[in-house]
Specification:
single chain; about 220 residues; alpha/beta; eight-stranded mixed beta sheet; two-stranded antiparallel ribbon; 12 strands; about 25% strand; elongated
Length: about 220
């Protein structure tokens, strides 16, 4: 599979020299930041550009991927329930509730097993919670249509994600979609897709398949 979308965040090696962990905690999003590398199952905290913490994480499975892009921590909460561990850091992802949280399934760390959120060991998420202020920028690397180990998803009404937003954007550019490109696959997206499929002499089933990706210029 060759991905042709321009929405790509670099898949480079996050491992570099470890910085002094005794730097002051400054509550400013330009000073402290988070990077997430789903392929490596790593979350890295940087202070003034220097790496100060590296955590092992679990990320979304191929059917419910962790959203790729740049977001902010906009909410911090405690004890949302056993499944979410002792801490929750909410992100401003436009198409759903995604966050960084603990887990009662520590065996999932290091795997693609979540429903899109970023799971951490409970002791790690408590530490991160104290370290990270509201407004912290988080960059989740990868490709919106899938990484080298996971092909793009088939999409249909009810799905959400950056890939849905990309499909909406392409359909809008082609004159088929008049709604908001919000990453939520609803009836208006289905209607636009079926019109596109009709004009391309495809089955009008409202499903984004590999053929639809190709016709929209997203796969080769």
């Amino acid at each position: 599979m060759i991905l042709l979308s321009s929405i790509v965040f670099g898949l480079f090696d996050p491992n570099s020299a470890y910085a002094d962990p005794n730097l002051p905690i400054v509550a400013g999003q330009e000073v402290i930041s988070i990077e997430v590398y789903p392929v490596q199952h790593q979350l890295i905290v940087r202070m003034q550009g220097q790496k100060i913490k590296v955590y092992s994480i679990a990320v979304g499975n191929p059917s419910t991927p962790t959203p790729v892009g740049e977001y902010q921590v906009v909410y911090k909460g405690e004890n949302w329930g056993t499944s979410f561990g002792p801490r929750w850091l909410g992100l401003n992802v436009p198409w759903g509730n995604y966050g960084i949280h603990g887990t009662n399934r520590p065996y999932s760390i290091g795997q693609h097993l979540s429903h899109g959120c970023i799971r951490m060991r409970n002791s790690d998420v408590i530490e991160l919670f104290e370290l990270i202020p509201l407004g912290t920028k988080i960059t989740i690397y990868g490709h919106v249509l899938g990484d080298i180990n996971h092909n793009s998803r088939d999409l249909a009404e009810g799905d959400v994600g950056g890939d849905v937003q990309l499909i909406q954007s392409r359909l809008k550019s082609a004159g088929y979609f008049n709604g908001i490109c919000n990453g939520k696959f609803r009836a208006d997206t289905t209607t636009a897709l079926k019109k596109f499929q009709r004009d391309r002499h495809m089955d009008q089933n409202g499903v984004v398949s590999a053929r639809v990706y190709e016709e929209l210029g997203l796969l080769e």
